[in-house]
From TrEMBL:
PANTHER family named among the record's database cross-references: D-AMINO ACID OXIDASE (PTHR11530), D-AMINO ACID OXIDASE (AFU_ORTHOLOGUE AFUA_5G11290) (PTHR11530:SF16)
Protein name: D-amino-acid oxidase
Reaction catalyzed: a D-alpha-amino acid + O2 + H2O = a 2-oxocarboxylate + H2O2 + NH4(+)
Cofactors demanded by this protein: FAD
GO cellular component annotations of the record: peroxisomal matrix
Keyword Nucleotidyltransferase belongs to the record: no
Highest classification ranks of the organism: Eukaryota, Fungi, Dikarya, Ascomycota, Pezizomycotina
Length: 364
């Protein structure tokens, strides 16, 4: 019989992964409360807009590296054993231009494009591309096997795994984090023992949290039907320091995501038509296999344009425990543009903090 009553706030990839791992323990009774659920497309809800893939960006020796390192085995296992999760392996090429260092996108990609990066021993088939095979202006490049996730399949798959383990999902809009503890728990009528906060950018305004270190990095994408057969990205562009190029094909007919932008402190929810044209031109230039017979952007078959707000946080994600007005809270938010590729590592740490909080309560 479940004895630990837990409420998870947020149903993006961080909230769903945390709820999924918590639900594997039959002693946990879990409710997910969220304003947005899989199937919604909203500027406040970052997870559906993500590529999503595994391109490690955590600095060597950091918690971020640890989270990404610990996430790869889980994504690899899902890809190999659970095709219904909507993830597939894809060859990826990463190009670096030294001149991008110091720009918004260059800083974002700085670890990814290192020579001899830490993740070379994590991902399969890693190899540096010989210098004599690089186009002018490219200083170094590597290729390896990564994964690309069809978010429209994967997020509902996580919901399904949670449901199978008894997790209850409810829509809710909370003004204060302690509101999650004022509602009786669905199974027992008792208040929850722990609240897990995975509200992403909403933690800026959520009462009791109001984390001023959070800010958006606006990402604009174009989703097309074209399939170039590989994932490609580069450290920056000549169109502006917060514009970048990446191309990735989602599993199971999810289309190819081409991007993008990394516009810090920019909240605009509407796609910029001029930026969309630049995104498409850069993608075709970097990855000619996107189109046939030397065509330009007229060869792209567009499904839709999209904008998402990455939940960036100064100092990195917040995975930590505290008490707020007497309520035990575990935070897991602020993952910027790497929520999927750090999802299991961060969720595993959040689960350990929940367990620690529950054992402290048991000793009282």
């Amino acid at each position: 019989m479940a004895t630990n009553k837990i409420v998870v706030l947020g149903a993006g990839v961080s909230g769903l992964t945390t709820a999924y791992l918590l639900s594997k323990d039959p002693s946990n009774s879990i409710t997910v409360l969220a304003k947005h659920m899989p199937g919604d497309y909203d500027i406040e809800y970052a997870s559906p807009w993500a590529g999503a893939n595994y391109l490690p960006v955590g600095k060597r020796g950091s918690d971020h590296e640890k989270w990404e390192r610990n996430t790869w085995p889980a994504l690899k296992e899902l890809t190999e054993k659970h095709p219904e999760a909507g993830i597939h392996f894809q060859e990826t090429i990463v190009y670096n231009r030294t001149k991008d260092q110091g720009s918004a996108t260059g800083d974002w990609f700085s670890e990814l494009v290192q020579r001899n990066p830490w993740y070379k021993d994590v991902v399969p088939d890693f190899q540096e591309i010989p210098t004599d095979q690089l186009a002018p202006g490219i200083d170094n490049a590597s290729k390896f096997t990564s994964v690309c996730i069809n978010t429209a399949i994967y997020l509902p798959w996580l919901v399904g795994q949670c449901r199978r383990n008894g997790v209850v999902f409810k829509r809710a809009v909370l003004k204060h984090i302690t509101d999650a503890a004022s509602t009786p728990h669905h199974h027992t009528g008792h208040k929850p023992d722990v609240v897990v906060n995975c509200t992403g950018l909403a933690s800026r305004t959520l009462g009791g949290v109001q984390d001023a270190k959070l800010y958006p990095a606006r990402g604009q994408i174009v989703v097309v039907r074209n399939d170039p057969g590989q994932m490609v990205s580069i450290s920056g562009s000549d169109d502006g320091e917060d514009e970048v190029v990446y191309v990735m094909t989602r599993a199971a007919g999810g289309g190819t995501v081409i991007g993008g932008s990394y516009q810090k402190h920019q909240w605009d929810p509407l796609p910029d038509p001029n930026l969309a044209v630049r995104i498409m031109k850069r993608a075709v230039a970097l990855c000619p296999a996107l189109v046939r017979d030397g065509q330009g952007i007229e060869g792209l078959d567009v499904i839709r344009h999209g904008v998402g707000l990455r939940p960036l946080r100064e100092g990195g994600p917040r995975v930590a425990a505290e008490r707020i007005d007497g309520v035990a809270v575990v935070h897991n938010y602020g993952h910027g543009g790497f929520g999927y590729q750090a999802s299991f590592g961060c969720a595993e740490e959040a689960v350990r903090l929940v367990q620690s909080s529950l054992s402290s309560r048991a000793k009282l």
